[in-house]
Amino acid sequence: MERGGTAGFNRFYKHAKSSSGLSIVHGGSSNSNNSNGFINNTANSNTMPPPCTVREQDQYMPIANVIRIMRRILPTHAKISDDAKETIQECVSEYISFITGEANERCQREQRKTITAEDVLWAMGKLGFDDYVEPLTVFLNRYRENENERTSLRAEPVLKRGIDYGIGSPIMMAPPYGQPGFHVGGHHQGIFDGATAMGGYFRDGPGGGAGGGSSSSQASLTNNFDPDPFVQYK
Amino acid sequence: MRQAGTYSGIVWGGISGKTGPHLLPLARIKKIMKKSSEEVKMISGESPIVFSKACELFIKELTQRSWMVTIKGKTRTLSTEDVASAVLATDLFDFLVNLVSESAPAPLHPKPPN
């Protein structure tokens, strides 16, 4: 059975139902299970995967996470067929692509290079997901407030802070802030200390992230609680 | 030291923190966003955060609607057909129509590319 080798074809193939959730592995990666480089429990053809094969699981949200969210909504006794789990997994990816496409078009029209959270929210509103915009806005605002607090914690003793979510220690201020090359900062100045590795640091240009980005984290501690521009989208 | 994982939970996808649980991996979201089009160049750090919550809302809505179909059939197992029915019955999910109609028949057998 041939596995989809390109993104466009993956839609046509169902991924393997192995419990590990793995299917195709890069041709060069270490996989001692068989010479084809497949890890799954279905019978394989003798097809060698092309060297640039993307793992199917990379195209989707991890199924365990999807299932966990589904179970929050379903009654305890509900069962979910494996196919349904995979279908919903695919739907999520499709949703992300759908919204991102619209957000990206807007960026292109406005000649911006970076898709921002505001673009995403705008696209959702435009594509009919208005009901999501408000809770997402709240969520994002809360996230940004946390970020501000986190930044200010770097400069002041933690005990002084009246933060109610239990940040007990400055130790957690260590920069690896997420995935490498993935800057989580949005529209605030100076979230990161200038010494933080900034490889792959994404930031939009003319948007709210003024100040050229990365340094002067201490200087800008107190001025970042303004409501964010995107609230006007609701 | 209290609740060491609060911030790292936010970023790494743990279930903690006042912003609400991040149930979905941000790096994966970013990957999918980039794959959606050749023209996607850069993505702000917050976009995947928004998406993580949005996908949660989306999964919940789709699951709920599918379940409504399931219980009409008096079974307790949510199937792909139920998902397909929910998609077809909801205008908001029009973008999924092709996807579910591919999924419905013989899901384990790959279709030849057109």
Automatic annotation (TrEMBL), chain A:
Keyword Magnesium assigned: no
Keywords: Activator, DNA-binding, Transcription, Transcription regulation
Positions of the Transcription factor CBF/NF-Y/archaeal histone domain: 61-124
Annotated region described as Disordered, given as residue ranges: 24-51, 206-234
Biased composition (Low complexity): 27-46
Pfam families referenced in this protein's UniProt entry, alphabetically: CBFD_NFYB_HMF
Top-level division of the source organism's lineage: Eukaryota
InterPro entries the record matches: CBFA_NFYB_domain (IPR003958), Histone-fold (IPR009072), Transc_fact_NFYB/HAP3 (IPR027113), Transcrpt_fac_NFYB/HAP3_CS (IPR003956)
Family named by the database record: Belongs to the NFYB/HAP3 subunit family.
Name of the protein: Transcription factor CBF/NF-Y/archaeal histone domain-containing protein
UniProtKB/TrEMBL annotation, chain B:
Keyword Cytoplasm recorded: no
Keywords: Nucleus
Main location: nucleus
Domain spans labelled Transcription factor CBF/NF-Y/archaeal histone: 24-87
Subcellular location: Nucleus
Gene3D superfamilies given in the database record: Histone, subunit A (1.10.20.10)
Family matches, as InterPro entries: CBFA_NFYB_domain, Histone-fold, Transcr_DNA_Rep_Reg
Record protein name field: Transcription factor CBF/NF-Y/archaeal histone domain-containing protein
